[in-house]
Amino acid sequence: MAPQPGYDRPIGIFDSGLGGLTVLRALHRRLPCEDLVYFGDTARVPYGTKGARTVVDFARQDAGLLISLGVKLVIVACNTASAFALDNLRESLPVPVLGVIEPGVETALRATRGGPVGVIGTPGTIGSGRYQEGLVHGVADLPGIATERIVTGECPLLVPLVEAGWEDHPATDLVLDTYLEPLRAAGVDTLILGCTHYPLLKSQIAAHMGPQAALVDSAEALAGAAERLLAELGLRRRDGLDEGGLPDGRLEYHLSDIPWKFAEIGARFLGRPITDVRTVSLEEMEAAGHLPPKG
Amino acid sequence: MAPQPGYDRPIGIFDSGLGGLTVLRALHRRLPCEDLVYFGDTARVPYGTKGARTVVDFARQDAGLLISLGVKLVIVACNTASAFALDNLRESLPVPVLGVIEPGVETALRATRGGPVGVIGTPGTIGSGRYQEGLVHGVADLPGIATERIVTGECPLLVPLVEAGWEDHPATDLVLDTYLEPLRAAGVDTLILGCTHYPLLKSQIAAHMGPQAALVDSAEALAGAAERLLAELGLRRRDGLDEGGLPDGRLEYHLSDIPWKFAEIGARFLGRPITDVRTVSLEEMEAAGHLPPKG
């Protein structure tokens, strides 16, 4: 499609904390000339053990903040927020909204070879049933699978273990053993990593699951979906410019708190040092919750 | 002191989440006829890995909510909030404020037999240096100890392990081994459990530390301090009534979120089922942050 007004505005990405930087990283690799604005709700992280109403309230503030920064697309990098708040945000926001669940489901349905499909995530994400619904209903041209073919696992301790930098600690090995044994025993051939923190445990999870299980990283799947959506809507940055000479996009970070080990954890998710961080005050978050009318 | 106006109002207790229920439990045992109003900021828990400014902002809203419920005393059950926000709250609130750090320090100084004193807590609590300052300065009639006699340990994973109910999982044993080995090796004779979640791991921590280390549970110490303070101020409930026939006080719970496994986790901290819970909306929290002037 021909370039539409607003094509040169940034893409907004929000997450409950720093985990969504794995999504920003995949997006920047796939769409290097797009400006990316990240918001991490580090003051209120985690979302994964909290109730639906709370997560919806927080997600509306997070998205509202990105809208106030003039983004052309909102990406919900947090699996729990995608599970609970995507419909609400799609109805409220004046720009398109993409979550991580649909792209993850699509990739898993393409990858499975007829065996059980596993999903691991926070209690919120698994409890919402959104991955399960997506796998049963299918997406686009892909038919769904039977409920009996789906095996899920709630893994609340993986987020704090990754944030502590304990990916290779023997305790993490024991935790993964407890969480993954039922999925391994069920013989899953495809495992969705349903949380932005889990890609940092990919090799450890792969070791527990064995070579027969393909791991689906939602960040990669989401980056592909974002590219297709922007192209469809005529909102890709390069659509409006000569592709050859386009410089790398600007990366901008907004956080509601500067937490413990922030620089170290941020760099681990992002793959490079995190710089130019702005903190967002509680008052600014409150004001951002009053979303503008859809238009 | 003779009963002062307001002696029959409730005591307010707040915490970042459900851990402070161990403090409520100790208070109810010590002061059974007092009405107790608990607020747990379950929507934004944990505080222990977050920055000082964020914790102060949250603590002011939490305390403001208790003030709006008419309490006569505010107890900061959260160690991280006590570390970062106690001075600010004492300056802002129209009622007396007690934190968990001073009582814990006092108990530890009475318990130590000349050996090193250990403190374990969240990164926020340990990083604030408040326990260390208290131990060095001493309290009341107790002289402080040399900085060289203090050994600290940041234990960010213990909160999520307790919330997952994994106190007896082998992974917790490995985590405790990593956290406690330096304190055990230093030969600490007194260990302050500087987080409201840790009393639930008391027997496991005791097993790792060995019999030479006395464990200081701040909840017990705080309950004693609260009783003394209320007596000094003429604000004990029984001061105004015939002691004999006084019925047990009312227990009231307000939470900003109904989180994962809330009933199960709450009962574990409280020692009985948690009932009559009211949820507090985000808007109500925002309004509570505007503390009334001191008077």
Biggest sheet, spatial arrangement of strands of chain A: 4-3-1-2-9-10
Stretches with pLDDT under 50, minimum 5 residues of chain A:
none
CATH topology of the largest domain in chain A: Rossmann fold
**Shape field of chain A:** globular
The average pLDDT value of chain A, as a whole number, equals 93
Pattern of helices and strands of chain A: EHEHEHEHEHHEHHEHEHEHEH
Q: Tell me the number of structural domains of chain A.
A: 2
The percent of residues in helical segments of chain A reads 40-55%
Discrete helix count of chain A: 12
Which pair of chains forms the biggest interface, and how many residues does each contribute?
A: A-B, 38 and 39 residues
Strand content of chain A: 5-15%
